[in-house]
Amino acid sequence: MIRKVLGIVREKNMLSLITSLITAFIGLANFMILTRSLDKESFGHWVLFITLVTFIDMLRFGLTDNALIRFASTDDRDKREEYLGASYKIGMFAIAATTILLWGSYAVIMLTGAEIGKGYRLFLAWYPLLSLLNLSWNNSVSYFQARQDFNRVLNIRLFSLIPFIVFLGVNYLYLSLGIDTILVVFLISNLLPSLFVFYKRWDGLSYVAKASKEAVNEMLNFGKYSMGTLVGTSLLKSADTIIIGMSAVLGPIGVALYAIPLKLTDLLSIPLRSFSITAYPKMSLKSNAGDIEGLKKVFYTYSGAVTLLFIPISMACFIFAKQLVLILGGGEYIDSLPLLVTVFRIFVIYSVLLPLDRFTGVALDSINRPRFNFYIGAIVTGKQIGRAHV
Questions:
Q1: d(C-alpha 149, C-alpha 157), whole Å
Q2: What's the pTM?
């Protein structure tokens, strides 16, 4: 089994892991700077905004991302371009639908004078624009994942991350600007990589004319299940944050506190996310070629090896939970340290089960059975949310 662990970290797997590590490191640095730049209430508003953004992005990109990776894993260039164009077309329709819904809701709230938290208000007002700005670069990232071109995936991700973290660093040291300015810079940081991939014709806009009705329907039939699976997974992490944000007692400060152990738990999924990114197109290629035995071999190798990697990582996180919480949150959160450590340790125990769950879902998607993945995810999600909130 040790030989299998060493085998899967070579070549494209290592580049995918490096991409995930760099992305996660920058995201962690962003989080740490924001916890020290904003007071607890403002930081809570920001976390709530990002949580809602992530959840709705799961709806949009869940509809197309896995489908694009699944169907673009082919050597037929015309087919790849057809599916890339179909993905972009579906993305534009999704943006139109969310814009009508969110701006319509925001208009009603403004006209009626209803009171909502600032995090919710920022989301309703700005997400439609953000969804337009991040469509191109997200679509191109999914396409290059299908092609297993992780050099370009890394370059595009860095293009979106570096401008924002540079601004956050300068703002923390010299400017001390508030959440509204931070949001504007966040929007700009999503615009820049989209302009780049549009110039390179990597986003799919130039191939929309090639998107046949059959390709669109095929992606939608696949995507409706993968979207449900991703939304269910996101609900496990975001439902608590959204509910805490609605609480009159906890509010944005409670959101800020809960975000720290949740962010640490996200870090545990870095190797899992990177290896699943490389496993998915490999399994899809085996499935498309009818090589079921080869697909099984990829599944057993990845699920077994990554589980072995997770056990010592989870043990270390459990032991050093106090130190990790302090590093991430800073001194301002030391008064809530016992509670945050306990919550994080509960999440750590749960994380040991993630590799088998993730690669089972990847295998089901790769053999074009996303509905089974969705049914399993829906059952698990329903039980977990019921236990947490009933």
A1: 13
A2: 0.75
